[in-house]
Amino acid sequence: KIKLPKKTARRYPAYELYLYGEGNYAEENKNLLLTGIPVLFLPGNAGSYRQVRSLGSIALRKAEDVDFKYHFNFFSVNFNEELVALYGGSLQRQTKFVHECIKVILKLYRGREFAPTSVAIVGHSMGGLVARALLTLKNFKPEFINLLITQATPHVAPVMPLDKYLTDFYTAVNNHWILKAQDLRNLTTLSVAGGFRDYQVRSGLAFLPRLSQHDSALSVVSSAVPRAWASTDHLSIVWCKELILATIRAFFDLIDENTRQITEDPKKRMSVLNHHFVRHPAKIFEENPEAFTELSGAFMWITVKASKWTYSVYNDSDGKYFTFPLASHRKSYSHVYCENSMLDTRSWIYGCMNSNSLMCLKVTDLSWRAELLPTTKVVILKLQDYPSLSHIVIQVPPMVGNKYTLDCEFFKEDSRTVQLPVTHLLSFGFSSSKILLNSTGLLYNVQLQHFNQIYQAFKIYVESHCQSLKERKPSVYRVHIPWSHEDSITVAKIPSFTEISAKLHIARPQNDSRVPELNIYSSSDCQYEVIVKTSLSQVLGQIIRFHAGALPVYVVSSILLTYGGQLSTLISTGQCSDFCFELVRTAKPYKVEPLISIAVFLQGFNWFREIWESLSLPEMDAAERSSQDAWFPVVSLILFLFGTGFAYWSGVFFSTSLRLFSSLWLTLIR
């Protein structure tokens, strides 16, 4: 526990600041003579300060690996497990306390040789929002933070806007980040969402608001993060080992060797985060990789003229260079694709500049163009983008005890890209759309036409058939969403029948014409059949995911309509009718739906919004969802049906319970 100034401790008696440590490191740092890089962890709604352990422990192991040349000091704030997602009144107080903590942390390093001037922050859930709110404080210096990583933080809007404190806090934070976007260029922000397993905070809310998506902000879903490729629930995102490893590796790559602190260069920070969280080239991060490199000429050089090539390596004691002359392929093909199942971090593919001889010693390293997938690393090069290359060179180093395969092929983009229109929402899964891929390529891109709305959800079935029964490496299927980092990856054995779920976290932006794709990284002698069907259960799941917060309103509106009917019956006949009977008679969608549609339409006009606000009415749920691209015409009707059903069966349950208990009571009393 870190001792706070008396004034701070008196003002915030419920909050505390801690330093995490274990083993010898904990003993050495009890006197707080710190020499590392400060990172502050902020827990979320009802979160514990002890959740910092996952980050702190793995960072310590990594520091031991580099003999403590660099290390991080992990601090954590105890917010007394306050329920800030349910009551927003504490958020401002938490933000001010974090500001005081940052000043205390920086003071601990005063007078050290490499004293930090800023703190990196990791915030889980509402802790990430508190970190963003620091910049709205009057006395806060923006240079106090240079890196912010948020985990499953609802940035766009609260999950349940239960009070005015919460909605006002969100408005203030998001408006500040949009209006002062230029001032935030020195702050690099990464938002990691949990994906479809996070039932508490849907990933669409964790994407930083679009207008503040400047050069120094990045939003990703954990299912798209290289080497993680998995969705997490709301809590496990804090301790998911694959994500923690990616975060700690990024922290160590962010260190500036001169200052021994996190680099002040925003471009380097973004390139490190892109390397670990967006596209991993299966190489250790280098800020400025050398443009040219020298190849040793001791290996055997072999020329390959075929357009398709496979090579299996097993106990190969002699190294080899395979060269692919490009001149003969440029007229017939547009791209070259290579894959390597050896998942080490060495360079393996190079480009040779205008060489006429068999050997090519000065080359450009194309391994940085590679992308790591679960079972292989792949490179796709557009030949037109490399006019100066005469050859592609693939290096096979001497290997003993390792078995792996290399594949390359030249292809025309048109022959590997097929369009598959998705089925209509109202097909209810009875009809399907299918396509057969029967060429012998290693890569296919199936464009999923007309798939761009959040209420669409599909089951994609991929069936693979192969000509021979030899052992093959698994196929990789990736659902690629081009307008946001929310890809999902499935690995399947061959031959197999694989089911893939396809749905969106955010709808396609209005000015964007790109189409989602199913990328199939396949085996060369296999056929693939792709079938797309609408999944009714997942469509309803998407409606619940995006609109569950509005459901209680529809339940209450059904109950109020029923009470109105009961009152009118009471006045006209002198008797109160049964609740369930009256609900069936009076709770009709046409009494609610037209009013909502008219109000949403009028909300588009400034004069109506001004009248609405002058009457102190809260913002309409439907209008708010429209602004988030999360509203569509039929959703209100579906929610009304759900709400009426819920009210009806609640009424049946309540009246049955009442009769049962009253008869029990009468039996006991009499």
UniProtKB/TrEMBL annotation:
Job description of the protein: GPI inositol-deacylase that catalyzes the remove of the acyl chain linked to the 2-OH position of inositol ring from the GPI-anchored protein (GPI-AP) in the endoplasmic reticulum. Initiates the post-attachment remodeling phase of GPI-AP biogenesis and participates in endoplasmic reticulum (ER)-to-Golgi transport of GPI-anchored protein.
Chief location bin: endoplasmic reticulum
EC number(s) from the headed UniProt entry: 3.1.-.-
Cross-referenced InterPro entries: AB_hydrolase_fold, PGAP1-ab_dom-like, PGAP1/BST1, PGAP1_TMD
Domain (GPI inositol-deacylase transmembrane) ranges: 550-667
Keyword Lyase on entry: no
Record-stated family: Belongs to the GPI inositol-deacylase family.
GO biological process assignments: endoplasmic reticulum to Golgi vesicle-mediated transport; GPI anchor metabolic process; protein transport
Any one cellular-component term (Gene Ontology): endoplasmic reticulum membrane
One GO MF term attached to the UniProt entry: phosphatidylinositol deacylase activity
All copies of domain GPI inositol-deacylase PGAP1-like alpha/beta, residue ranges: 34-253
TM ranges: 630-654
Membrane-topology descriptor: Multi-pass membrane protein
Main EC class the enzyme belongs to: hydrolase
Protein name: GPI inositol-deacylase
Keywords: Endoplasmic reticulum, Glycoprotein, Hydrolase, Membrane, Protein transport, Transmembrane, Transmembrane helix, Transport
Compartments where located: Endoplasmic reticulum membrane
